[in-house]
Hints:
Elements lengths: L6 E8 L7 E8 L2 H15 L4 E6 L8 H5 L17 H13 L2 H6 L8
Antiparallel strand pairs: 1-2, 1-3
Amino acid sequence: MTKGFYQEFEVFSKKNDVAPMQYQFSLLAPNHDMALIMAQENFMRRELVADIWVVKREDVRKMNQDERETLKRLDNKDYRTTKGYGYLKKKWRHYEQEMLDEKEILSWGGEVKKS
């Protein structure tokens, strides 16, 4: 956006004092004060909030491509994510079926079924 009268602002809010801050929307305003007033007007018509933040878009720093590369895993650590354990239920079921056959279960009662 070219420099002009209006600037882009990002609006964040939280519903109560213990809730996390959440992104809501962008708006155009001439300055921080007007951006806050516009954000308040928007929320007072819709819902209650405990706090509102307005931040100039140009003041929000995001990661560049080189920095984003550092977020990628260098090794396979799928076991750290929940999807990494998805195979265990199937593996455990297979293990139980091998270990607990009819003779094994009946032997627990003291009787062994004769074939």
